[in-house]
Amino acid sequence: MADLTSLLYTAEHEWIAVDGDTVTIGITDYAAEQLGDVVFVDLPAVGATVTAGQVCGEIESTKSVGELYAPLTGEVIEINDAVVEDPSAVNADAFGDGWLIKVRVESASVEGAFARDGYLALTGGEA
């Protein structure tokens, strides 16, 4: 599991781990809990360009369908094939094995992103 205080968070309940010009993106435990049992994940293809604020994928659960928004603009350099094969990994380990995509970015600046404390305030103390 990642150090949750080192991550950035979005109002769309995504987490972002920055490592130089590469960011790893996933959804938070809070989002996974709200969705329920995740049964299908549709992610952008490696090599695709994602645009900040735009839909780049879909997450389906037994309760609903949710959209995955790109928090940054960049090129998808890796997708988590294990999550595509077994979407329940999102529920089991949202901040670890349940990561979704890795994106190469020119700037890791995320407009409107929260630190951990800000995200917890947004969700009423739940992550």
Automatic annotation (TrEMBL):
What's the cofactor?
(R)-lipoate
Where in this protein does the record say N6-lipoyllysine is found? Answer: K63
State how the cofactor is bound: Binds 1 lipoyl cofactor covalently.
Pfam families noted in UniProt? GCV_H (PF01597)
Look up keyword Transcription and say if it applies. no
Q: Which residues form the Lipoyl-binding domain?
A: 22-104
Oligomer and partners: The glycine cleavage system is composed of four proteins: P, T, L and H.
Function as written in the Swiss-Prot or TrEMBL entry = The glycine cleavage system catalyzes the degradation of glycine. The H protein shuttles the methylamine group of glycine from the P protein to the T protein.
How is this protein named in the record? Glycine cleavage system H protein
Q: Which organism is it from?
A: Microbacterium pullorum
